[in-house]
Design a protein that fits this description.
InterPro entries: Bact_transf. The protein has 229 residues and is mainly α. The protein has helices spanning 6-10, 23-61, 92-102, 104-113, 124-131, 139-145, 161-166, 193-206, 209-224; strands at residues 67-73, 79-85, 149-151, 178-180. It has a two-stranded antiparallel sheet. The chain has a two-stranded parallel ribbon with strand order 3-4.
Length: 229
């Protein structure tokens, strides 16, 4: 695991968020949340691991490898390898650069949202996995290893650090990023990258067991309704 200075990521700013919050919230943030994650891992492992294996075989039939790993920024500014089922063509990164070069509208959309609404790089199988959010399932292992949480801010790319900090993001670095979270269950296809930062700050301020239980239910609803992006 690589590491970058949290002072560099934060621009030398210290985070004093929630110092006066209720003691219960602080206890959950410090100890309870990780315990909650591990309990969910134990409960979900007999289902999640076989499903990941089956989906991996399905992705391979579409051509290319089954899994996609990418550096993401985690708690304290540490980098980790974020796991996903591959949903895009193998040369997706190079293809994005070329699309942004030749199409100003695509470049504008990427710069504003850091994603494309109708991304031509997504494969046939990948489109189904994204709509059901099943492409995120291998991140179960990231949670088990302690890089992520089931619920939290969506992990961003190292290249997006300056943009994230420029939007006022600070609380992110005191949390593990999540498989699901406030932004993920929102009308996220209409949210800008800057608005995503606001979701993260609000989540950190309101963090509690009840908040995560609500997100558990909301995530279930989003998956059932196939509203993933």
């Amino acid at each position: 695991m690589t590491h970058i200075s949290s002072n560099f990521i934060r621009g030398g700013q210290s985070n004093s968020v929630a110092l006066d919050e209720p003691r219960k919230a602080n206890i959950y943030r410090s100890f309870g949340k990780r315990t909650f994650d591990l309990l969910l891992c134990i409960i979900l492992a007999p289902i999640a691991l076989p499903v990941i294996a089956v989906l991996a075989l399905w992705v391979r039939k579409d051509g290319g490898g089954a899994f996609f790993t990418q550096d993401r920024v985690g708690r304290g500014g540490h980098h980790f390898k974020c796991l996903k089922l591959r949903t895009m063509r193998v040369d997706a990164e190079a293809h994005l650069v070329e699309m942004c070069r030749v199409d100003p509208e695509i470049r504008k959309e990427w710069e504003l949202y850091q994603k494309l609404d109708n991304d031509p790089r997504i494969t046939r199988v990948g489109n189904i996995l994204r709509k059901t959010s099943l492409d995120e399932l291998p991140q179960f292992l990231n949670v088990l290893f302690g890089d992520m949480s089931f619920f939290g801010p969506r992990p961003f790319l190292p290249s997006q650090g300056a943009l994230y900090m420029g939007a006022g993001g600070k609380a992110y670095f005191d949390m593990r990023p999540g498989i699901s979270g406030s932004w993920q269950v929102s009308a996220r296809n209409e949210s800008t990258f800057v608005e995503r930062v606001e979701y993260d700050e609000d989540y950190f301020r309101d963090l509690s067991l009840l908040t995560d239980l609500k997100l558990l239910w909301q995530t279930f609803v989003v998956v059932i309704k196939r509203k993933g992006k």
